[in-house]
Design brief:
Blueprint: H1 2-15, H2 35-42, H3 45-51, E1 53-56, H4 63-70, E2 76-78, H5 82-95, E3 103-106, H6 119-124, H7 128-143, E4 149-150, H8 174-189, E5 202-206, H9 225-232, H10 234-241, E6 246-249, E7 253-254, E8 257-258, H11 263-273, E9 279-281, H12 286-293, H13 299-309, E10 314-315, H14 319-330, H15 334-351, H16 370-383, E11 385-389, E12 401-405, H17 431-436, E13 444-448, H18 462-470, E14 474-480, H19 501-510, E15 515-521, H20 528-532, E16 536-541, H21 547-555, E17 634-645, E18 651-660, E19 666-676, E20 687-696, E21 701-709, E22 715-716, E23 722-723, E24 728-734, E25 741-746
Parallel strand pairs: 1-2, 1-10, 2-3, 3-4, 5-6, 6-9, 12-13, 12-14, 14-15, 15-16
Antiparallel strand pairs: 7-8, 11-16, 17-18, 18-21, 19-20, 19-24, 22-23, 24-25
Bound molecules: beta-D-glucopyranose.
Residues 107, 151, 204, 283-284, 488 line the site of beta-D-glucopyranose.
C-alpha cells in the first residue's frame, strides 16, 4: 500500500515537470518530460544519497568537501558566503559526473540586508500585502547574492511568550498565520520559482514546535489529534496550498514521537493525504538527535526512521550519507523511499531553474535599494501597536523639547531583532537618529540613555536621565529587549522588563513630566505596572532597519498607528497560556471576580466563585488578541447578514458599517469572529475568520462585507475528518477579540 502511494507521488512529481534546457546534467534533456526520472536512472546509489546530504560551509572550503562535491556526494549547502558560491558550484558543475548543481540555502527570515520587522511584528500589521512585499524584497536581495532557498516562513502557532521563537512566529491564531504565511510564501517564490529573484520557501517547523512545554525551546509537546488538526496544522495546510516548495520537520517530540521520525504526520498526512509534492528537510542535526530523544538506538536506526517517516534532506547530521548505503544493502525495498526523496530534490532544483542557471548572478545594487527601505519603513509603521493613549500622542505642536531616554532609543543592532545574519547595524536608523533628523517641525532633542543596554544593572546613568527629563516638555522612554533575548534557544521564565528598566520608568514618572513609553521587544512583555505609570504606550516587535523613522512619524502624527496584537498579552507569566481562542470550561469565570483580599481569614473551604480563574490575576489578559488603538475613533454599526445561502451555494455574507468619528485619518483592522456554539467536540469560544484593513478620513463611513463559506465553519472532529455540523453559530465583528457587535445564525 505504502509503495503504491509512493509511486503515485513520484508520478505526480514527474508529470508536473516543466521542460528546461538542462545544460549540464543532461545536455539533451530540453523538452523531455522525463528529465528528473531519467537523471535518477543514471545515478549511482552514492550519488542519490549525495542529493539528500546538506552541509554547512563557513569560510574557505576544505579538500575533503571538495572531494565530496566532485564525487556527487553533496546536494545542498547552507550558510555558504556569497564570495565562495561560484567557485564551489563549479566543482559540481564541471567536475562531478552528472553535473547536478548544488542548491544554496540560508535563513532569510525577515529580510536579507534590508531588515523588516520580525515576523511577529509583521503579523501585527494584519496586512498580507506588506508581508508579501517584505518577503519579495528579502528574496530579491538574497537572490542577488546567490541564495535560492530560505528556511522561512516559520508557521508555528505560539501562545507562549516565554518561548524565544515566538518572535519568529505569526502569533497565536491559525487563520492569521495561514493568511500571512501564504503571503510570505508567495513573496519568496514569486510567480514561478524559475524567475529571477524567486527563492524557494520552507514552511517550518512541521509541526507543533511552538507548544513547547513551559515555553522552553526544543521541549516536548503534547498536542492531541483534534487540536493538532484544527490549530497547529492549519497554517501548514495553507502553506501547501500556497505552493511552498519545501517543509522542515520540527525538533520537538509530540506525544513521544520526534517529528523527524513521525511517519504518521510527515508521510501519511503531509506527503500522502495532502499530496505535498516538494522536499521535506530535517532541522539542523535533528536526525541524530533522535538518539538523545530516546527514539533511536544509534545513527543507523535514526537514518532509517527518518527515511521511513519522509525526511528527504538531512540537514547537517550526516546520518544519511553515512548510513543509507548499508541500510539499503540490507533491505532493498528502501530504494523506493530513497528514489522518492531524490526525485523531490531534483525536481526542486529543476523548478528553480538551477540546471540552466547554476551560478550566482550578483547584483549588489539591489541591496538596501531605496524602494526596499521605503517598504521596510511602511511595514514598521503598520507593525506598531498603540496600547494606551491619554491624549499625549501625537505629540502636541507646543512640545518642542523632547527628552529621549532609555536603552532602546539608539540601539541599532537590537532593534533589528533575532535571526539577522546579513543585515548591518550601521544601516539601521534608530529612533534617536530619526528624531534628530526629523524635518517636519523644529524639535530640540535631549538624549540621555539612563541605561546603556536593556540588561544594564548600573544605576550610574539614572540621575542624568531624570535631570534630562526635568528639562523637557515630554519624555519619550525607549525600553524593551535586546535582540539576543528572543529567538532560537532564548526562552525566558520571567517576562518583566530586564535590568533596571522598571526602576528607570519609576524614576522618570516621578518627575511628573508627560511620559510616553516606546517598547521594542521580541515578544509580549509583562509591563502592566509600567503602563500604569505612563500616559501613552507604543509597542513594537523589533521593527528592523527602518524602525526609527517609523516611530518618529507615528509619534509626530505623520502616521496614525494601526497595528493590532497578533498574540494576547499576559498580565503575569503565570497566566500563560492565555489565548483568546480557548474552549469554554463548564464553569467559565463571571464578569466580576472576587478579590484575593476579600477572602476572610481562616475561611472554610468553599469552591470560591465556582469558576475558572486565578485568585490573584483573574483570567483576562492585559490586552486581548487583535487589540490596538488609533489616534482616531471608529464606530461600528448595522451588523447584519446580507445573504445566507449556506445550504445552496454554501456561502453566507455579513455587512457592517464602519465610521471614523475622530479627527484623524486612520486605518482600522475590522475583525470577524465565529463560534460554533454546540458541536460533537467542544469548539473555541471564538475564532478569527476574516479581517480587513479599512482606511477612513474623519467623518467618512464605509460598509465592510465579509463572506464565509461552509469550509470556514467546518472543523476536524474526533474522526479527524473536516465537517460542518448543524446548529447555532455566533458571530462578532469588532475592533479586537474581546468585544464586538454580535449576531447569530443557524446552519
Ligand atoms: C533552526 C531552523 C533553521 C536551521 C538552520 C535550526 O536550528 O531550528 O529554524 O532553519 O537551524 O539554520
Amino acid at each position: 500500500m505504502r509503495t503504491l502511494s509512493i509511486l503515485l507521488v513520484i508520478s505526480i512529481i514527474c508529470s508536473e515537470f516543466i521542460p528546461v534546457s538542462g545544460s549540464q546534467a543532461n545536455a539533451n534533456s530540453s523538452g523531455n518530460s522525463d528529465f528528473c526520472l531519467q537523471l535518477l536512472q543514471q545515478m549511482t546509489l552514492e550519488e542519490k544519497i549525495g542529493q539528500l546530504h546538506q552541509l554547512s560551509l563557513r569560510g574557505d572550503i576544505g579538500e575533503e568537501t571538495k572531494k565530496a562535491i566532485r564525487a556527487g556526494k553533496v546536494g545542498s549547502v547552507i550558510n555558504i558566503e556569497p564570495r565562495y558560491m561560484n567557485q564551489v558550484q563549479e566543482l559540481a558543475e564541471k567536475e562531478s559526473r552528472l553535473k547536478i548543481p548544488l542548491l544554496y540555502g540560508r535563513d532569510v527570515i525577515h529580510g536579507y540586508k534590508t531588515i523588516f520587522p520580525i515576523p511577529l511584528g509583521q503579523a501585527a500589521t494584519f496586512n498580507p500585502g506588506i508581508v508579501r512585499e517584505g518577503a519579495r524584497i528579502a528574496a530579491t536581495e538574497a537572490y542577488s547574492e546567490g541564495i535560492r532557498w530560505t528556511f522561512a516562513p516559520m508557521l508555528d502557532i505560539s501562545k507562549d511568550a516565554r518561548w524565544g521563537r515566538i518572535a519568529e512566529s505569526l502569533g497565536e491564531d491559525p487563520y492569521l498565520s495561514s493568511v500571512l504565511g501564504a503571503a510570505m510564501i508567495e513573496g519568496f517564490q514569486g510567480k514561478s520559482l524559475a524567475d529571477k529573484y524567486s527563492i524557494a520557501a520552507c514552511a517550518k517547523h512541521f509541526v507543533g514546535y511552538g507548544a513547547a512545554e513551559g515555553g522552553r525551546d526544543y521541549n516536548s509537546t503534547n498536542i492531541p489529534p483534534v487540536l493538532m488538526h484544527n490549530v497547529y496544522l492549519a497554517p501548514f495546510r495553507a502553506a501547501n496550498q500556497a505552493g511552498a516548495a519545501s517543509f522542515m520537520a520540527s525538533f520537538n517530540d509530540n506525544d513521544g514521537i520526534p517529528l523527524t521520525g513521525d511517519t504518521e504526520l510527515l508521510r501519511n498526512v503531509l506527503k500522502n493525504k495532502w499530496q505535498f509534492p516538494g522536499v521535506v528537510v530535517s532541522d539542523w542535526n535533528a536526525i541524530n538527535e533522535m538518539i538523545k530523544h530516546g527514539f533511536a538506538t544509534n545513527r543507523t536506526e535514526a537514518a532509517l526512521k527518518a527515511l521511513q517517516a519522509g525526511i528527504d534532506i538531512d540537514m547537517m547530521s550526516s546520518a544519511y550519507t553515512n548510513e543509507l548505503q548499508q541500510l539499503i544493502a540490507a533491505d532493498s525495498s528502501l530504494m523506493t523511499l530513497l528514489d522518492d526523496a531524490v526525485l523531490r530534490v531534483l525536481r526542486m532544483k529543476q523548478q528553480l531553474g538551477l540546471f540552466e542557471k547554476p551560478y550566482n548572478e550578483a547584483n549588489p545594487s539591489l541591496l538596501y535599494a531605496a524602494s526596499h527601505l521605503e517598504s521596510a519603513r511602511q511595514a514598521a509603521e503598520e507593525s506598531f501597536v498603540l496600547l494606551k493613549n491619554n491624549n499625549l500622542l501625537p505629540l502636541k505642536p507646543e512640545w518642542n523639547t523632547l527628552a529621549v531616554i532609555g536603552p532602546m532609543a539608539d540601539a541599532p543592532h537590537d532593534q533589528l531583532g533575532t535571526w539577522v545574519f546579513d543585515g548591518e547595524k550601521d544601516k539601521t536608523i534608530t529612533p534617536l537618529r530619526a528624531l534628530r533628523e526629523y524635518t517636519g517641525r523644529k524639535l530640540r532633542i535631549l538624549y540621555e540613555p539612563g541605561l546603556e543596554y536593556t540588561r544594564d544593572l548600573s544605576r550610574k546613568g539614572l540621575k542624568k536621565a531624570v535631570e534630562t527629563a526635568q528639562k523637557s516638555d515630554i519624555v519619550l522612554l525607549f525600553l524593551g529587549e535586546e535582540s539576543i533575548l528572543s529567538g532560537e534557544a532564548h526562552s525566558m521564565a520571567d517576562l518583566n522588563l530586564v535590568g533596571l528598566q522598571s526602576e528607570l520608568v519609576a524614576e522618570i514618572s516621578k518627575t511628573g513630566k508627560p511620559l510616553v513609553l516606546v517598547v521594542m521587544a521580541g515578544r509580549p512583555l509583562t509591563i502592566e505596572k509600567e503602563i500604569e505609570q505612563a500616559g501613552a504606550v507604543l509597542y513594537g516587535f523589533h521593527p528592523g532597519t527602518m524602525g526609527g523613522p517609523a516611530i518618529a512619524r507615528i509619534l509626530l502624527g505623520d502616521v496614525n498607528p494601526s497595528g493590532k496584537l497578533p498574540v494576547s498579552f499576559p498580565r503575569h507569566t503565570g497566566q500563560i497560556p492565555v489565548h483568546y481562542n480557548h474552549n469554554n470550561t463548564g464553569r467559565p469565570a463571571p464578569e466580576k471576580l472576587p478579590s484575593l483580599y476579600e477572602i476572610p481569614r481562616e475561611a472554610k473551604q468553599t469552591s470560591l466563585g465556582n469558576t475558572s480563574f486565578y485568585l490573584d490575576y483573574g483570567f483576562r489578559p492585559l490586552f486581548p488578541f487583535g487589540y490596538g488603538l488609533s489616534y482616531t475613533r471608529f464606530e461600528y454599526s448595522d451588523f447584519k447578514i446580507t445573504r445566507n445561502e449556506l445550504h445552496s451555494s454554501g456561502e453566507i455574507s455579513f455587512s457592517v458599517k464602519l465610521r471614523n468619528t475622530g479627527n484623524y485619518t486612520g486605518t482600522e483592522v475590522v475583525q470577524l469572529y465565529v463560534q460554533d456554539v454546540v458541536a460533537s467536540v467542544a469548539r473555541p469560544v471564538k475564532e478569527l475568520k476574516r479581517f480587513e484593513r479599512v482606511q477612513l478620513k474623519p467623518g467618512e463611513q464605509k460598509e465592510v462585507v465579509f463572506t464565509l463559506i461552509t469550509d470556514d465553519l467546518s472543523f476536524y472532529g474526533r474522526d479527524l475528518v473536516k465537517t460542518i455540523e448543524k446548529g447555532l453559530f455566533r458571530t462578532w465583528v469588532g475592533t479586537d477579540s474581546s468585544q464586538g457587535l454580535q449576531l447569530e445564525f443557524k446552519y
